[in-house]
Amino acid sequence: LDQRRLTLATKVGERPLWVHGDAARIVQILDNLLTNAIKYTPEGGHVEIEAGDANGQVIIRVRDDGAGIDDQTRARIFELFVQADTTLDRSQGGLGVGLTLVHQLVELHGGAIEVHSEGLGQGSEFVVRFPQVEGPQEEASDGEATQPAAKAAGPGRVVVVEDHREIRDTLVALLFDDGFAVDAAPDGLRGLELITELRPDAALLDIGLPGIDGYELARRLRADPRTTRTVLIAMTGYGRQDDRVAVDAAGFDAHLIKPVDIDEVVATLIRFGVQPLPSHT
Fold first, then answer.
1. From edge to edge, which strands make up the β-sheet containing 112-116?
2. Which CATH number fits domain 157-280: 2.115.10.20, 3.50.50.60, 3.40.50.300, 3.40.50.2300?
3. Where in the chain are the domains?
4. Model pTM score
5. CA-CA distance, 240 to 116, in Å (whole number)?
6. Whole-number pLDDT of residue 94
7. Are the C-beta atoms of residues 57 and 133 closer than 8 Å to each other?
8. Which overall architecture, per CATH, does domain 7-131 show?
């Protein structure tokens, strides 16, 4: 924002707005929408996020006065790899993966998303609607202490560490759609921090990561008692024998060759005991 002299405005009331969902996924939705707005807003432009409620819904709006969207692109903007017109500077990458992920996450939370734009050069507005729920009660009724709910058996948790955003977002979206709980990191050091913190059931690690590569990341995870049992799956662009030897030596459990097939990823996870939600099996 500072580098491009963009102005970010927020409009949020003092009263809390409650929705039922995964906090990390809600943050991911907002992050992708804001990233998209910033990407297509020229230097000196304005981005605004507003949150409110109406008719039993929590409504979040992300607006910008940037490049805008033509009618043809707007009709298909939530499809994978849809690319805006060349006038929007193709060098900045496609719209599709991040917005496809947003669309899927919003719908999985029982919500809806829509986009508005008057056309190229006229800015855009993304509107997300979630069902509104009542917030937690300050005190339990009848003077009884509130008892914590029993933890339900949930889906297998997977962390994806991949520096290419489109690949990372695609894997996250597809694994989430297949019933896994998914988090992601863009480089080796942040991947190490995230995996150590979350202690997931499995981690998909790209080998050619910035910071520390996938081999070193795997070695550090294997040396840490907190993550020594995490299933580690390598993603590489090569399937030569020496690559497989290096993968095994680093402590990986499995080796997938890029471009990875999501069915093969899911089958590998299940083979090592990492299960999706029962309704997805």
1. 7-12, 46-54, 57-64, 124-131, 112-116
2. 3.40.50.2300
3. 7-131, 157-280
4. 0.54
5. 49
6. 41
7. no
8. 2-Layer Sandwich (3.30)
pLDDT for the residue 279:
53
For each successive 10 residues of the chain (281 residues), what is the average pLDDT? 80 86 82 86 89 93 90 78 42 53 87 91 92 67 41 69 90 88 92 94 95 95 93 88 89 93 93 78 48
3-state SS track over the chain: CCCCCCEEEEEECCCCCCECCCHHHHHHHHHHHHHHHHHCCCCCCEEEEEEEEECCEEEEEEEECCCCCCHHHHHCCCCCCCCCCHHHCHHHCCCHHHHHHHHHHHHHCCCEEEEECCCCCCCEEEEEEEEECCCCCCCCHHHCCCCCCCCCCCCCEEEEECCCHHHHHHHHHHHHHCCCEEEEECCHHHHHHHHHHHCCCEEEEECCCCCCCHHHHHHHHHHCCCCCCCEEEEEECCCCHHHHHHHHHHCCCEEEECCCCHHHHHHHHHHCCCCCCHHHC
Q: Residue 276 half-sphere exposure, CB side, CA atoms within 13 Å?
A: 17
Q: Which residues have C-beta within 8 Å of that of residue 94, sequence separation ≥ 6?
A: 81, 82, 83, 84, 166
Q: Which amino acid is at 135?
A: G
Distance, first Cα to last Cα, the chain:
43
Q: How does strand 157-161 pair with strand 202-206?
A: parallel
Q: 25's torsion region: left (phi>0), alpha (psi -120 to 50) or beta?
A: alpha
pLDDT for residue 278? 60
